[in-house]
Q: What sequence folds into this?
């Protein structure tokens, strides 16, 4: 599916490919695998060298059932990733200090698990192994790192992507489509002049793992407080993943706690539901904001991942939304037998944009509404929220919609 490069400046190297992906993290890596399985030649541009890569850090990510199954079809769920992931058998949502509880179980949905809590590092190792050694008979993946995006220019027949390698030697890659998966502060998006909407939440997420005193039993908890939600998710080896969202001032206090005091504070906030915590890992903190691109598509350009939508972690929807981006883009670009397809065809990219808009509105609206609704601290509002959770738990049509959202089914 490759095309010949056009004439370029004589002091630069030039190559050609079908799709250039800027960003070799979780989103860019999964997309490269998906596109190559459909026969596209893909070039992945990753700025960080292997020994300095932070794309696959020590955090854990909750992947909904539908997203996990999709990753499995792409060959990403190998034995190592499967064994290092914790299955979510049940989800319990409650408001701290008030009655009311919503429960969702895998058994009632007739499935093995609602999702899985996986280590980013394990997925990263699998992605990098596939990028370094693509399967014979599929499209070729060229994994370029360290290399950084410099600029791009598109025309009717393709897009020229200018990059610099680790020695600052310039190269121009001629492609027919570029995908920006280069994070919330995307340089590609900025150069393309694609504006974003940004809403600061005045909240910070503290992320760690810990060992609960009682077995978690595959239960994921979402505990809402006026400062922000505390998620306690089942991980492998009996541990839990902690995502504690608090207002900035409280987050600064949390950062000063030693391990024993931190574990005690989590247990107190959580209502002692697992009997306490011990052996917390190193903590990391991340300021939270809602960042959404005004448009996800431009001339021969698709913006994806955090470059298109950086969400609050309240409902664990960020990476799952990205997986649906990947699924829909590959579907739109997939050619019929014996059909010549231009992956940068404006009509196909318009179809992709149309497919994604409803999912964006629904998912972003859900997370933003949860953050604002459960963060209000007004007299009597906690009782209203508790009553709402109890009512929601008993309304089957609404609960079925929540089950589908939890499973990542758009």
A:
């Amino acid at each position: 599916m490759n095309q010949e490069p056009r004439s370029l400046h004589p002091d630069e190297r030039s190559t050609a490919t079908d799709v250039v992906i800027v960003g070799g993290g979780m989103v860019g890596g999964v997309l490269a695998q998906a596109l190559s399985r459909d026969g596209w030649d893909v070039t992945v541009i990753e700025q960080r060298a292997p020994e300095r890569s932070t794309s696959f850090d020590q955090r854990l990510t909750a992947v909904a059932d539908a997203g996990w199954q999709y990753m499995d079809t792409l060959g990403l769920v190998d034995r190592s990733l499967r064994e290092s992931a914790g299955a979510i058998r049940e989800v319990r949502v409650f408001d701290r200090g008030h009655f009311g509880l919503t429960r969702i179980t895998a058994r009632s949905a007739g499935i093995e698990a609602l999702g899985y809590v996986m280590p980013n590092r394990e997925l990263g190792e699998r992605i990098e192994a596939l990028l370094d050694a693509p399967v014979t008979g599929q499209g070729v993946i060229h994994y370029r790192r360290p290399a950084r995006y410099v600029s791009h220019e598109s025309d009717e027949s393709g897009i020229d992507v200018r990059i610099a390698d680790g020695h600052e030697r310039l190269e121009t890659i001629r492609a027919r489509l570029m995908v920006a998966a280069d994070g919330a502060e995307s340089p590609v998006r900025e150069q393309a002049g694609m504006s974003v909407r940004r809403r600061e939440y005045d909240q910070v997420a503290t992320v760690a793992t810990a060992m609960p005193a009682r077995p978690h039993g595959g239960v994921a908890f979402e505990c809402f407080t006026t400062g922000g939600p505390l998620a306690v998710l089942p991980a492998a080896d009996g541990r839990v993943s902690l995502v504690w969202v608090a207002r900035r001032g409280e987050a600064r206090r949390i950062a000063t706690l030693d391990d024993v005091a931190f574990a005690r504070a989590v247990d107190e906030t959580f209502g002692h539901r697992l009997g306490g915590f011990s052996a917390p890992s190193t903590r990391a903190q991340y300021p939270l904001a809602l960042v959404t691109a005004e448009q996800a598509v431009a001339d021969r350009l698709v913006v994806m991942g955090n470059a298109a939508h950086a969400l609050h972690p309240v409902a664990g929807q960020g990476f799952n939304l990205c997986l649906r981006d990947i699924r829909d883009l590959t579907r739109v670009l997939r050619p019929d037998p014996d059909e010549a397809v231009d992956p940068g065809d404006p009509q196909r990219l318009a179809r992709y944009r149309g497919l994604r808009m409803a999912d964006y509105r629904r998912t972003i609206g859900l997370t933003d509404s949860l953050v604002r609704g459960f963060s209000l601290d007004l007299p009597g509002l906690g009782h209203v929220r508790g009553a709402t959770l109890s009512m929601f738990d008993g309304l089957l049509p609404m609960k079925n919609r929540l089950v589908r959202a939890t499973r990542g089914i758009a």
The two ends are 31 Å apart (CA to CA). Residues 83-120+200-289+380-406 form a domain with the D-Amino Acid Oxidase; Chain A, domain 2 fold (CATH 3.30.9.10).
